[in-house]
């Protein structure tokens, strides 16, 4: 699988995501996901889709 890219928008906000084969590394604005989100509930919500599909350790998310 090559890198997959998606863009989401709401009003004037834009979110972009790159999903690449890897080891489960999450990066947001140059920071680790736990450092970026700070709240445990937001962190768990962000990784949940990859946990449910058993893909957490198969992809890097940027």
Q: How many domains comprise the coordinates?
A: 1
Give, in order, the helices and strands. EEEEHHE
User: What fraction of residues sit in β-strands?
Assistant: 35-45%
Mean pLDDT: 94
- N- to C-terminal distance: 16 Å
Second rung of CATH, namely the architecture: 2-Layer Sandwich
Question: Which spans of ≥5 residues are poorly predicted at pLDDT below 50?
Answer: none
- Report the top-level CATH class: Alpha Beta
**Strand elements, count:** 5
Radius of gyration equals 12 Å
SS-based class:
alpha+beta
- Basic shape: globular
In the CATH hierarchy, the third-tier topology is known as Ribosomal Protein S5, domain 2
Helices and strands, with pairings:
Elements lengths: L3 E7 L2 E9 L5 E2 L2 E2 H5 L2 H13 L6 E3 L1
Antiparallel strand pairs: 1-2, 2-5, 3-4
